[in-house]
Design goal:
This protein has one domain (3-187). Helices cover 77% and strands 0% of the residues. The chain has nine helices and no strands. Helix 1 (3-16) packs across helix 9 (162-188) and helix 8 (139-155) packs antiparallel against helix 9. It is globular. With 195 residues, it is mostly helical.
Length: 195
């Protein structure tokens, strides 16, 4: 399915579950700001887990879902700090090469948190699975997904738009993840999906 379809569906899911998703988003944003971003990744894993359950089981998201994956806090913190240090060094010293490195990390690790939320794997396994999913199937579609995801995130970088764009970006990524994993699993078993 096209990235446009997933973006429209993400907006629909957000509107249909406006109150619980908005409450989760506000708590997620406040805690991310208060903790200077240190809890952002682990809270996003919990956010994704709640959305996966919403899509699969029609279970309404709850604020407590944000804390459902606290067991991966330290590994994610180490990963985030390592990427931040590498990014700062590369961007400061290498400028263009540093920006290319950041785009490459985003390209290969875009599904990492979703794998952690869905399959309860560690950071290394999630990175391996994310890389596999990123290069499996239509690369052009994956690039389009990455561009849309980053544009929605950048669009929401203002405080006013952040409570709207952040959940839509996360829902969009979860929907794409579900579609790509279903396609990958079907093709590895010799089936084709015509959706």
């Amino acid at each position: 399915m096209s990235a446009n379809y997933h973006l429209r569906r993400a907006c629909g899911i957000w509107l249909a579950n406006f109150v619980p998703i908005t409450m989760m988003t506000l708590v997620y944003l406040v805690l991310s700001i208060v903790t200077l971003g240190f809890m952002s990744a682990v809270l996003e894993v919990g956010f994704m887990h709640a959305l996966l359950r919403l899509i699969r089981e029609e279970r309404r998201p709850q604020v407590g879902d944000l804390f459902s994956h606290m067991h991966v806090f330290f590994p994610l913190l180490v990963f985030t700090i390592a990427v931040a240090i590498i990014a700062v060094i590369c961007v400061v010293l290498l400028r263009v090469a540093g920006i290319i490195l950041l785009i490459t990390i985003a390209f290969f690790c875009i599904y990492m948190l979703t794998f952690m939320a869905d399959q309860k794997v560690g950071v290394i396994d999630a990175i391996e699975d994310s890389v596999d999913l990123a290069v499996h199937g239509d690369i052009a579609q994956h690039i389009g997904v990455l561009v849309i995801y980053l544009l929605v995130k950048v669009l929401g970088s203002t405080i006013i738009l952040l409570p709207v764009t952040e959940p839509i970006a996360i829902i969009f990524l979860v929907l794409v993840y579900l579609d790509r994993t279903k396609r990958r699993n079907a093709s590895s078993q010799g089936f084709t999906l015509d959706l």
